[in-house]
Design goal:
Length: 567
């Protein structure tokens, strides 16, 4: 089966910078005027470590239009509310930006793209004007790509080009629900879905066996009853001339796995096909707490098997020895909860049910109230104790968080410093690095967070300076897994200097970072990481210096210092 991928692409690592408080925002922009710069020396290649990845999350429809011929398909032409229709972005546009080196320059080593499977055809009026499924979370057919996003071959090329550029792919997957019911998108049979009651979140039951919102049919993921395929799906496949092929593949899958033909297992088959056929590296799983946790264990198990099969069949395309990675959107989960989510009547450890990582909804609050040292040390301690071998994904903005860290985009430099230097996986939402506005006139609800990528702003000097800041931090993070996956240790409080160290198998890494440094000449203690005589590069300014008596002196007009051993 030629699957549509809801691509989440992951790659390149992230970021280092300094900055102590909001008042440092302006001074961070200052360009070098005195230092004698050299071309930064590339560090020796380090192994890719998921726990320290730098992920870029984008909505395909809002990122870049690479193929105008697919802008108007499936008669999705009704007038919509502001930013609630298809805008033209597609898979080919993402490929173009990979080939242009945009993600490489940002230090991105994983891409997460919204779900790309075929969406419902009709619009829905949610009280904000007509809305089409441009976001990808209203599935109609999990087995094919939505034509507004492109084709299966486009997706295949996207994965191949990403891998060629050392970028992993995170596929965004949804098992919890189908898309809304419309005159063009009939509801599936009641042995597949429920259309009520709506979730009230009073306890486990009222968060799982219910519909998230009105008119969003909930897949009966708790059911082990064997069911037939939905009539509408069978008719669609027959019309498209692929019914027999799809049925044959289902026979093989269920015979091979021994799984029952229950609703959840059909969808697991359809989703893992993308892994088996394309070599998808991981999942970003949607609406985790609304599905029984055991379902995720089965999905993770089948995805790992599919990934192993792809590697066996494509030995020349294998990037590394990492297993398939599973990251979850457990809405409301925060790092203070350690490994558990509390429904009130029961606690669930999702890390024990197939997940390697959970999105950390707490980060924005910690970033607002904690100093750099308290923020970094807190997250390092969590990673090195209760979450050993696991991780969290931190973010400052996203597609559905109406109260982000910096909605007005007044702290764009600080946002990069806090996000990219905090232990854990960093999630850069498209436009964080270019100050894309999150307040769009006339847009209601989540739509204001989902505007078109502001490529034209790159002509502005202030946008170029901001982008360079994100790039420097991102590249440093990419080259050094110690930043996201290593141990944090403060070297001095004022001026603020700290180290990160990482060791795993045959790989070891160590860096020293200074924030809130004085402009001009500054001396940093580095003896805990680098020996006397070692030649270091400050990758933020491009200057080099030699360690003497346990310290190194850097001359630049930046307040950030990112030190690595010169290779």
């Amino acid at each position: 089966m030629k699957h549509l991928l809801t691509t989440s692409f992951l790659i390149l690592f992230s970021v280092f910078i300094s900055c102590k408080s909001d008042t440092k925002e302006t001074s961070e922009k200052t360009a070098i005027t005195e230092s004698k710069t050299i071309k930064p020396v590339a560090t020796e290649s380090m192994p890719f470590i998921w726990e320290g990845a730098n992920v870029y999350f984008l909505l395909a429809d809002r990122f870049k239009n690479g193929d105008p011929t697919n802008d108007e398909v499936l008669e999705r032409t009704k007038e919509t509310g502001v930013l609630r229709g298809f805008e033209g972005g597609d898979i080919k546009g993402i490929i173009q930006k990979i080939e242009d080196g945009y993600f490489k320059n940002l230090g991105i080593n994983a891409l997460w793209v919204n779900p790309l499977v075929e969406q419902i055809h009709e619009s829905v009026d949610e009280g904000t004007g007509n809305t089409y499924a441009f976001h990808g979370y209203w599935a109609k057919d999990w087995t094919t790509i939505d034509p507004n996003f492109g084709t299966y071959d486009d997706l295949k090329k996207l994965v191949e080009v990403a891998h060629q550029n050392d970028i992993r792919i995170l596929m965004d997957v949804v098992i919890n629900h189908t898309g809304p019911v419309t005159d063009k998108d009939p509801v599936w049979s009641d042995d597949w879905v429920r259309t009520g009651p709506q979730c009230t979140y009073k306890d486990y039951e009222t968060a799982v066996k219910c519909t998230l919102v009105e008119n969003l049919p909930d897949i009966k993921t708790e059911s082990d009853q064997e069911v037939k395929l939905p009539e509408a799906l069978v008719a669609k496949w027959k019309k498209e001339g692929r019914l027999d092929a799809e049925l044959d593949e289902l026979e093989i899958f269920f015979a091979k796995t021994g799984l029952k033909r229950s609703p959840k297992n059909y969808i697991i088959k359809w989703l893992t096909d993308y892994v088996k056929e394309l070599g998808i590296d991981g999942y970003r799983v949607d609406t985790v707490k609304h599905v029984e946790e055991g379902v995720w264990s089965v999905l993770a198990e089948q995805a790992k098997l599919a990934f192993s099969e792809w590697k066996k069949n494509n030995p020349n395309k294998v990037l590394d020895n990492n297993e398939f990675y599973v990251l979850g959107e457990l809405y409301g989960y925060g790092i203070d909860g350690k490994r558990f989510y509390d429904f009130g009547d029961r606690k669930v450890d999702y890390y024990a049910n197939g997940f390697d990582n959970l999105i950390n909804f707490q980060f924005k609050y910690d970033a607002k109230r904690l100093s750099y040292e308290k923020l970094y040390s807190k997250y390092s301690a969590a990673m090195q104790t209760g979450l050993i071998g696991k991780s969290v994904m931190n973010y400052i903005t996203s597609h559905d968080d109406g109260d982000p860290f910096d909605k007005e985009r007044n702290k764009t430099f600080e946002s990069a410093t806090k996000l990219l230097l905090t232990p854990g996986i960093s999630q850069v939402y498209y436009g964080d690095e270019t100050g894309r506005s999150l307040i769009i006139e006339g847009a209601q609800g989540d739509a204001t967070l989902r505007s078109n990528m502001n490529w034209d702003d790159l002509e502005k000097e202030e946008t170029k300076e901001l982008l360079q800041h994100w790039q420097k931090l991102g590249k440093f993070r990419k080259d050094h897994p110690a930043i996201g996956a290593g141990k944090h240790k403060m070297i001095s409080e004022t001026p603020y200097v700290f180290s990160r160290t990482f060791s795993k198998a045959n790989a070891s890494d160590g860096v020293v970072i200074g924030l809130n440094q004085r402009k001009g000449t500054k001396t940093l203690k580095v003896s805990s990481i680098f020996k006397d005589g070692a030649v270091l590069t400050d990758t933020y300014s491009g200057t080099t210096a030699t360690v003497k008596e346990g310290s190194v002196t850097i001359k630049s007009d930046y307040e950030i210092v990112l030190l690595e051993a010169k290779k």
